Amino acid sequence: MGLNMVITVSLPAFLGRSEAAAFRNQLLVAMEQKESVAVECANAGPLPSLWIQLLHSAATSAKAHGLSVSLKAASAECRESLQAIGFDPAHSALVLE
User: Of 17, 86, 19, 77, which is closest to residue 43 (Cα–Cα)?
Assistant: First the structure.
């Protein structure tokens, strides 16, 4: 059994709806290729709820396939936006690194 590959993707500078659709497709392609995804969040401010939902649902799907979606270097603002909607890292498929 081979090791899972992990690809790193960066959040786009603007977190709008069209960017969310493109980003979601990127995540789906990675999962189809059996790759886990590390999302680079170092430059991200607070995440809009649409993006939090997108990341959370992608992480849940990934986990069901033995893969993962993790947030790397999440800024304090990014973490606060997750906590503001009740995100609990202990009970989520989304991994905070």
Answer: 77
The CATH number linked to 88 is 3.30.750
pTM (2 d.p.): 0.88
| Domain count for the chain | 1
Instruction: Give the pLDDT confidence of 5-38 residue by residue, as tens digits.
Output: 999 999 998 999 999 999 999 999 999 999 999 9
Per-residue pLDDT tens for 81-96?
999 988 887 888 999 9
Domain ranges, residue 57 = 5-96
b (16+ CB within 10 A) / e for 61-72: ebbeeebbbbbe
